[in-house]
Amino acid sequence: MSTSAKGGVLVYAEHENGVIHPVSFELLGKGREIADRLGVELWSVLLGHRVKRQAEELVYYGADRVFLYDHPTLEVFDVVRYKHVLVKLVRETEPLVFLVGATPLGRSLAPRVAAALNTGLTADCIDLQVDKDGELIQIRPAFTGNILAHIKTRSRPIMATVRYRVMKAPKRDTSRRGVVVEKRPGEALETGLRFLGKVSARRVNLADADVIVAGGRGLKRKEDLKLLEELASLLGGVLGVSRPLVDEGWISKDYQVGFSGNTVKPRLYVACGISGSPQHLAGMRGSDVIVAINIDPSAPIFRVADYGVVGDLYEVVPKLIEALKRIKGGSVDG
Ligand SMILES: Cc1cc2nc3c(=O)[nH]c(=O)nc-3n(C[C@H](O)[C@H](O)[C@H](O)COP(=O)(O)OP(=O)(O)OC[C@H]3O[C@@H](n4cnc5c(N)ncnc54)[C@H](O)[C@@H]3O)c2cc1C
Hints:
The protein is of the alpha/beta class. The chain has helices at 22-38, 52-60, 79-93, 104-117, 225-234, 243-247, 278-284, 301-304, 313-328; strands at residues 9-13, 15-16, 19-20, 42-48, 65-70, 97-101, 121-125, 127-130, 136-142, 147-151, 158-162, 179-183, 211-215, 238-241, 268-272, 289-294, 307-310. It folds into 2 domains: 9-183, Rossmann fold (3-Layer(aba) Sandwich); 206-328, TPP-binding domain (Rossmann fold, 3-Layer(aba) Sandwich).
């Protein structure tokens, strides 16, 4: 493999304090597929300080070549500085495709890079395919999730952000070999941004939860969320909600599942008093097992549910809680 290259598929490797965000591995998996179809190399780019070891990880997950910018001036994420470095790299290496995770960081970085390069950006993709003519098709929900738009981009590089947990990460393979190209970020220009510290951390990480018990407008009062929280905790999971409860101000948006909230993929998703609008389904239909509790047998949620309970959540959920407590307490009769 040569030390210089042009025209690969480039994946931005996001990390926090050296911990690579799993969306980057998912993108490497999809990027591998695209690169193989196009007959080009798969690249990744990593910016930070003391992150050399992580560059190897990217190779284990499929990168043929990692452009590594390891420098004290890149220790803290400064969107303007990072943009400058990425724009320079893209101009030098001319990737065909540049993929970034649709995380809060990626959503801030990718549009700036695209604008500086005067290229298009398809945001929030849920799938990427290469068609028979070798063109990249970027698939994303449109019209509030009612249709899936298939988008081709004329400008180069083709840039897209891709949602977390919609693609499968490849298996880590430590026998893989690739090239790590150490790069210098260039002069650190004053960007006018100063990192003052983190003021709040997210209270819940829905995207990584194994079990989610979610409540919708079937709940009568904010206080009743506690009922679902209790069920979630007995199942070793977390609470989620449909958007109206966030709009009502009952709970923060961190808990929202759906098109304009979190995409989740738990092993178990229990939807309580949720009708199953396309916007809600867009965020949870990838769950392994879906259980729906709803008084209306014609609710659309039952069409995606593996198990459905037609009933009042105020009767069904307390019974479930009781049964789980009994099982946990050691008595399994009844
Ligand atoms: C641009 C846009 C983005 C959106 N993004 C999202 C999003 O990210 N996430 C999201 O969730 N929504 C989103 N929405 C809103 C979405 O269209 C729906 O309005 C919303 O999902 C409905 O929430 P719900 O199912 O809780 O409420 P409803 O549709 O009102 O359903 C309530 C359900 O509860 C049942 N029910 C009532 N009482 C009981 C009871 N006692 N026991 C059991 N069942 C009961 C009813 O039969 C009904 O099916 C978005 C909308 C737009 C326009």
